[in-house]
Amino acid sequence: MTPERAFEQHYPQLQSIISKVLDHMHDFSVLVSMDKFLPFLDMFQKESIKVDVCKLILEAFVKYQEEPTNDPVVVNALLYVCKTMHDSVNALTLIDERRVIGHLITGFLRKIDFGRDFERQLDSYVDARSSFSSLETVLVMLVESVNLLAMRTREVVKGNHTRKTAAFIRACVAFCFITIPSIDDVFTRLKLYLHSGQVALANQALSQADAFFGAAISLVADVPRTIEIDHKVKSSESYLLAYMNNFFSTLLVVPDSPDQGALYLVRSLLNVVQEYTWELNSGAKMSIYLNAVSLLSAMSQEYFLYHADKVDSNDRLYGCDKKFLAEINRLVSTLIEAVFEHLKSLTSEEELKKQAAIAIGFFNRLLCHADLSRPQLATLALNLWNLAQKHGYGNTKYTIRTLEYVKQKGSSGHKEYAAIAQKMIIQTKM
Q1: I want to staple 165 with a disulfide (CB 3.0 to 4.6 A). Which of 102, 161, 216, 430 is the partner?
Q2: What is its main location (predicted)?
């Protein structure tokens, strides 16, 4: 059987043959070892038809291959099939077509498993990256898979890396750091930088984790103000706010680099937030500032709420050092001042509702993190409560639950909360 143009008249029949074979033969180790299997594919000279046939093969493999495989015959044959589909993608290829091909190739790659031979597994991902570099879906899957591989390595050694496993972790980290910039979607890159940094941190690769977090911080400035979801254009601020919260929760356990100043990652992130172009009258920036205050409050504790295993966070590095606490206080003061300035600027009828939301959010953070036995902070909390209630724009159900919480704290022996609860009044808009 040799490839000839004469078969062009019989493509439907040839496709029907391959379809029926795939319907009845699900053991791909037998199927691809046939002498005529790959030559049969070469009979399809028209690219679009050949790609359709390759899709049929990959769909069958993903559907019927229940167990992972590392059979070299199967892997090499289906890599050829995947490469045929990948090479058909160009600038004119429709997005849906790219998505289908990417989904099939990632489905195949996920079926390849070399067990405990992690180095061979990583090599297969490196080969896949070079073979399928045009498909963003595949690149994302490869980064996620390599991160998973690093965590599987950590699980095997129970977090106690040897020189060999530490070198392997660095190889995984390098793979991710090289691959992520080739992904076009900003939001995906942000997610992968943070995820990869968390994986590096969990494996005690601290300098590499810093590099990932630094790259993520630099990328925040490039986040577009809108995002398209299901063919609808929406504001990206809700996504960015959620991302920042996730980032803050990670930064709590990230130790400062000896080559940088105290809290350099937090300061860098806040600088980017300050310079970012937010929507007019948006409350997202203030929400981030208030969440940063919560983070800094947690950082001022003698012992942090949680830690990364076998990583000394700043509570152990600084041990409540006065200079470190002074830096925290300086940042908190700057953030609070920025929030107050923003609250003062909200004066129009439309802005008063946002003012109330920010004020009650600030009030709740004081409840959680401030020492309300100090008169200045108790007065500040009451002023914020009154501001939230002043024009009757507060969320009544939310404020009622907040008041109930303060009363409950007061009745459980916290006198400062009881004193505040007596002065809290709920107003509604007439």
Answers
A1: 161
A2: other
